[in-house]
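*** C-alpha cells ***
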Amino acid sequence: MLDQVAELIREVAHTVVLPRFRHLADSEVQEKAPGDLVTIADQESERALTRGLTALLPGSVVVGEEAVAADPAVRDRVGGGGAVWIVDPVDGTNNFAAGKTPFCVMVALVRDGEPAAAWILDVVADHLTVAEAGSGAYRDGVRVKTRTDNPGAAELRGVVSHKYLPDDLRDQVRANAAGLGGHTNGKHCAGYEYPAIATDEQQFGMFWRILPWDHVPGSLIVREAGGVVRHLDGTEYRPTDHQRGLLVAANADIWQSVHGTLFPGGAPDVEPV
C-alpha cells in the first residue's frame, strides 16, 4: 500500500500539478477567502487523488481540502470509523500560484481516528517522505530520525508562523522568539516544514491554524522520526482536534525549551474553535 500510494501521488504531481506550474492563466486562480487561493491544479489534483485512493482501498472515504471548502461538513468524516484519506492536493498553493517553491502533495491515511500512514512529496525538489505508524519515517527510502539532544534555546532554529495569530499573541511571540537561535516565518508550506524537522534541518515549528490536511501527514512523519507534536497546553495533537496552536519539535526536551522561551508565563489561553 505504501508504494502504491506513493506511485499515485507521483503520477498526479507529474501529470496534473507540475505542468501547471508557472503556466496558470488568471482565470485558473481564485480566492476562496482573503489571501487563501485555490487553483485549477488543486481541484484537478484532488479529484485524481480521490479516484485513485478510493480505488486502492474500497470502502474508504476522502477528506480533501477543496471538498471541505465546498462543504465544511466533509471534515467531520475524519472522526468517523474505518479508513479515511486526508488529502492536501497542493500544499503551498500561494507559492505555487506565484510561481515559487516549495509546494507539495500530501496524503495521510487515518484508521478509526488515528494516523496510520503519511506521504509528502516535494514536487519540484522530488523528495518523498513517508511514514507508517510503528515503522519509522523515511525520506527517499532512507530512514530519518530527529536529533535526540537539546543544545538549548539559543542554538535552536525553526519556524514561528505569525500568520493567523491574534495581534496580542503575535507581539508576545515575536518579542520572545529573540531568545531562540534562529527563527523564520516559514516557507508557507507545511509539507516542507515537517520533513525539515524530521531531518534536523530545523528543530521546531509553531503554528496557529490547525487544519487536518496541513498537519496530519507531517505529524505522523515527525513522531515516527522521534519528535513530538503537541498543542500549546502540552496535550498531544490528534487528527480530529480543532484547538488552535501547535508546537512541533525534534524531541520532548526541545519542545520544553522552545515553549518556555515563547511562553515564559505558561501556555496562552486558547479559545475553542
User: Anything to note?
Assistant: The domain at 2-144 is CATH 3.30.540.10 (Fructose-1,6-Bisphosphatase; Chain A, domain 1). Helices lie at 2-17, 40-56, 65-70, 93-97, 167-176, 190-198, 212-225, 252-262.
